[in-house]
Amino acid sequence: MARPRIKDVARHAGVSEKTVSNVINDYVHVSERTRRVVQEAIDHLGYKVNLAGRHLRKGRTGIIALVVPELDVPYFAELARHVIREAERRSLTVLIHQTGGDRDHELAALSGFGSSFVDGVILSPLALTADDLRERADAPPTVLLGELLEEGADHVAIDNEKAARAATEHLIGLGRRRILAVGGRDDTGLGTAEARTRGYRAALAEAGIAFEPAALLPVTSFRMPDGAEAVARVLGAGERPDALLCLNDQLALGALRTLHEHGLRVPEDVAVIGFDDVEGGRFSVPTLSTVAPDKAAVARVAVDLLRHRMDEEADTAGAVAAEDRGRSPQDLVVAHRLVLRESTEGTARGA
Questions:
Q1: What is the CA radius of gyration of the chain?
Q2: What is the three-class DSSP state of 25?
Q3: Torsion angle, alpha carbons of 130, 134, 135, 136, to 10
Q4: What is the DSSP string of 135-179?
Q5: Could you report the per-residue pLDDT of 96-128, keeping only the tens digit for each?
Q6: Is 317 helix (H, G, I), strand (E, B) or coil?
Q7: CA torsion 129→134→138→142, rounded to 10°?
Q8: Which residues contact 147 (CB under 8 A, 6 or more apart)?
Q9: Per-residue pLDDT tens for 226-267?
């Protein structure tokens, strides 16, 4: 049986081939009734869109890149799943690339890997500088994740400072005063850890709790062994915190292990809260309180913004409204929430 073509769909739906094309390309100026009739015809006939042909006609590959520091970090793995799902809904394929936080690898991603292989890039940078972004004249459309390096790039993130402040305020509300920040850093930088440290310090100041530099526990990387080692170092020195703000869930899970090995009860002796709401924290003993970014929303907003920039660059068939072309870079903030579980509450709440 011959493969159904667009004219077959048009004949079956009683519309023009142009209308079928508009539905397939998700143009906004199509009535819901027409869209439904065409979609029913597509489903009935088993019509398959020739994505390769469509992208070639638009001068595209149909491939976008998701570039993250480490693929085996649960937050990025979960984020990648959401990005792939959102891209598939827009007939795009996702190439996933790991940089290891290396500046040269991030620069290669920023330039589209030196070719026209990808139509756009969603990049979570660790080592790039504002100067690197200013010099990206020939880069493909790019959306940055994480902290904003400068105002000259499209950017999607949660409000990390506000989130860390809320998490610290929760610990203070439990009566905790000796709160250590695992992974905390000097708060004058532009990174995510620095922003979360600023939020932590702001909450302490508001509560009248003196900040001590020794309360920041530096880590080499943000993995479970690093969290475990940082807390072991403090406990080995005779310090006894009553709460830990861990700047991601991996650090928090490592911290839980060390506290258990030292016979300290969570949350009775030490309350623990993390960031990212990764799956492992829902199954740890105790379950982990955490700041939960809306990862699905981060992916959806980033892919939508990137696709808009790609359409803007190609200016395909009026896909971008004239008033939107050349608009300034956007800094979009996605929601987060505090999820309270056993590691601060004793019993889960809001999970």
A1: 24
A2: coil
A3: 100
A4: T-TTPPPEEEESS-S-TTSEEEE--HHHHHHHHHHHHHHTT---E
A5: 999 999 999 999 888 888 767 899 999 999 888
A6: coil
A7: 60
A8: 157, 160, 190, 191, 192, 194, 195
A9: 999 999 999 999 999 999 999 999 999 999 999 999 999 999
Residue with tokens 């907003």: 301
Contact 73, 83 (CB under 8 A): no
**DSSP helix/strand/coil, 331:** strand
Residue 250 · residue 256 · CB < 8 Å: no
Within 10 angstroms of residue 104's Cβ, the number of other Cβ atoms is: 9
Burial status of residue 186 (CB atoms within 10 A of its CB: 0-12, 13-18, 19 or more): exposed
Q: Are 284 and 348 in contact (CB under 8 A)?
A: no
**pTM score over 0.85:** no
Report whether 246 contacts 255 (CB < 8 A): yes
Cβ-count burial 244-280 (b if 16+ within 10 Å, e if not): bbbbbbbbbbbbbbbbeeeebebbeebbbbbbbbbee
The whole-angstrom separation of Cα 251 and Cα 255 is 6
Q: Nearest CA to 235 among 192, 182, 196?
A: 182
Contact 293, 76 (CB under 8 A): no
Q: Label residue 327 by pLDDT band (50, 70, 90).
A: low
